Amino acid sequence: MSIETMTKTKSVIYARVSSVNQVLKGHGAESQAARCKDFAKHRGYTVVKTFTDKAVSGSLIDRPAMKELLGFLRKHRKDNVRVIIDDISRLARGLESHLALRAAISSAGGVLESPSIEFGEDSDSQLIEHLLASVSQHARVKNAEQVRNRMEARIRNGYYPFIPPPGYKMAQTQGQGKLLVRNEPITSIIQEAMEGYASGLYPSQADATRFLKCQQDFPKTHHGTVTNETVNRMLNKVIYARMVERAELGVSLRPAQHEGLISFETFEKIQERLKGKAYATARHDVSEDFPLRGAVNCADCENPMTSC
Predict the structure, then answer these.
(1) Residue in 216, 192, 189, 197 with CA at minimum distance from that of residue 306
(2) DSSP designation for 79
(3) Three-state SS for 286?
């Protein structure tokens, strides 16, 4: 290939980062693109565009930037565009996904290249390529197993290693790692709502929902309201009673390390009320319009009757 021909060769860069942390720090995609630009310069290619998929798993084929890249290749099919990736794992983290994307790029008129591997059509080159793709897949699966094992170990020891529920936030503590701590003023609002529902101060979930809607600091939807589903999830979270469990990890109910909002006895009262096994006590703020509110049960389902 002559120097003149090489300088006319168009190339594009494809980068991918799999985690939100990499996106926020901005290092992963930038370092990939920098290495690919050096490779293109060495080969004498002109880089015309960079495509980046952010926070996208390597096991997925359907990716926004990859779709855009394939469309670009089809539009410039006659240019025989070089597609440069930093490493084989940036294309995919599994053999099946790798082969599918490799075929899609070739079908669209692109030629895959990388500073880490020489892609070829001979049997030896394909064997090395498939082995590297399989190794990348193994690393992805192994990382997932290690993350799962660490999470299981943490929760077995009473820690909550997931996204904090409303009313809590994660804080780094000495000797314990990350621990759930109160996130005021939301914590106190949830505590009041749950204790009020357990005691019958709020005879129904609708009453608890109305209470939360009136609290300026309680998180609301973009419509400025609180959904019944949100309240139902809140009332069923045993995490607020200083207990943890995770059935999918094989971890049964056990005491937690963090501070609870309510006692476990209060949580059990809530569950009894949700299942209709407990009746609401009479409220102190019953208006003259509804004098029997909280004191009358339905003749059909036997649940406490409410009014509005």
Answers:
(1) 197
(2) G
(3) coil
* Residue 220, number of CB atoms within 10 A of its CB: 15
Listed in sequence order, the residues at least 6 apart from 137 whose beta carbon sits closer than 8 Å to its beta carbon are 93, 94, 95
Whether residue 241 contacts residue 171, with contact meaning beta carbons closer than 8 Å, is answered with no
What 3-state DSSP class applies to 38? helix
Residue 72 phi/psi, 5° resolution? -65, -40
Q: Determine the 3-state secondary structure of 69 from DSSP.
A: helix
Are the CB atoms for 43 and 6 separated by under 8 Å? yes
Taking the model in full, what pTM does it have? 0.60
pLDDT of 137-167, one tens digit each? 888 889 889 989 999 999 999 999 999 999 9
194 CA to centre of own chain: 27
Task: Give the neighbor-by-neighbor strand order of the sheet with 10-17.
Answer: 46-54, 10-17, 82-85, 111-113
Question: Whole-angstrom Cα distance, residue 305 to residue 201?
Answer: 14
For the stretch 218-277, pLDDT in tens is: 999 988 899 999 999 999 999 999 999 999 989 999 999 999 999 999 999 999 999 986
